[in-house]
Please model this.
Amino acid sequence: MEQQHLQRDQPPGVPPLALTGERTLPDVPEENYWFRRHLAVYEWIAERVRGLRVADLACGEGYGADVLARTAADVVGVDANPEAHEHARLRYRRPNLRFERGLVEEFDGRPDAIVFLQTIEHIHDPAKLLDRLARVAPLAFITTPNRLTLAPPGAEKSENPWHVREYSLGEYRELLEPYFSRIEILGVVHARKLRLHDLALRAGWDRAHPALGITKPFYSRFVPAIASSDFRLTVRGDLDRALDFLAVCSA
Model:
């Protein structure tokens, strides 16, 4: 039976969430790479929504809405999952932050900006949803994983069962263009120690650590030590090799 990972060290009265693969979570050491990869984008966006009214749609556990609320005037985090909603409501408390339970397809607020991260690949009718988002806010930050670096070579999608469709850079731009007048796409890439790890892999590290018998000891320390600063967002280079795409969209 596969071991279920639960969040560690939650505040009193806050029920920990289980890692299912549908959403990333903080406070799960084994998940830290993915959490920090998403957190880096939230931190980048937070610097660009200072003083704005923001809706974080499909906010999941709530950590991202909390990051946005550090700079935004007002933040509402919206998620349909009852366990995630209750956890977020109990854990993250700021005067300018609230959480609502609801489907993103039914969101009818009028914020200055919408944040919609790592979810469009879960949506069965993305065109209908994007049309709605473009009508309710003048600015949207929308991310999705890059199919070319997430899925095996030549595959239509990765093995993630929660993903309906994954996109290449060209496919992603084609998906967004009918609904927004201006689109800038940035790529999320490795930096700092993750960049060094990439270089080590190219030099044969994947052959060395099993031969030395240090795979588990090394990665049990390396993964929890990853920080959001080990990722960066860029418009330069070959974005087809990016990990994720961040589209900054103006209606």
